[in-house]
Amino acid sequence: TCTYRDDTLVFSELDGRLGKSEVPAVSASFSLRDDLVFSVTSRGPALRLDDLLPVLNSFAETRDLVRDITAARGSLLLTAVDLKGPLQSPEQWRFTLQGTLQDVSLEAAALQGPLTIQSAALQADQRVFSLADGRAAFMDSTVAGSLTLDGYLRGVEKLRCAGRGLLGRASLEKIAPFISLPAELMPRAPLSV
């Protein structure tokens, strides 16, 4: 359904596809006034990350967010998507995402191997990104737990994480430069956390 009233174009209950991704029950409104404000909501999109990465790389505003990711596979199953703001000012957009990640694999040159997330609950808005009840593997390590990044769109202002798992030698060597421990205090692998 499409309606036009008071200089606003409104679409209701649209369904769409992008590659193997499905986006059902989309509602959107676009102001045709000078402010060009828009809003988009959807309930239940099933997004394939290999469909989503090229889309994010096609916009200058989101390209920096994903610039280091060279490959992405798996699914993002969203229970809620809300996005709104002035169309020509992405830095002013406000959004909320809720859903789950399933069988995700991310590759980036800095990682020296894939980061896999078997499953995790996702919540994100323009200020905070969080994964809860996650199960992840990287190099020779496996971890279950949660991760929260505050200010992630401007550089991470605060990081909180809690988890349990096993860190292998290759992973410990990879993170050693970031934790600034003297060599004599560096834990030996394998390390249970």
Brief characterization of the structure:
By secondary structure, the protein is mostly beta strands.
Taking the alpha carbons of the first and last residues, their distance comes to 53 Å
Number of strands: 12
Gyration radius over CA? 20 Å
Helix vs. strand class: mainly beta
- Helix count equals 3
**Biggest sheet features:** 12 strands, antiparallel
Strand and helix order: EEEEEHHEEEEEEHE
Helix content: 10-25%
Oligomer type = single chain
Mean pLDDT across all amino acids: 90
Form type? elongated
Helix and strand arrangement:
Elements: E1 2-5, E2 8-18, E3 21-31, E4 37-42, E5 46-48, H1 49-57, H2 60-66, E6 69-86, E7 94-108, E8 115-125, E9 128-138, E10 141-150, E11 158-167, H3 169-179, E12 191-192
Antiparallel strand pairs: 1-2, 2-3, 3-4, 4-6, 5-6, 6-7, 7-8, 8-9, 9-10, 10-11, 11-12
Could you explain the architecture of this structure?
With 193 residues, the protein is mostly beta strands. It has helices at 49-57, 60-66, 169-179, and strands at residues 2-5, 8-18, 21-31, 37-42, 46-48, 69-86, 94-108, 115-125, 128-138, 141-150, 158-167, 191-192. Strands 1, 2, 3, 4, 5, 6, 7, 8, 9, 10, 11 and 12 form a twelve-stranded antiparallel beta sheet that branches. A hairpin with a 7-residue loop joins strand 10 (141-150) and strand 11 (158-167). The protein is elongated, with a radius of gyration of 20 Å. It starts with a strand and ends with a strand.
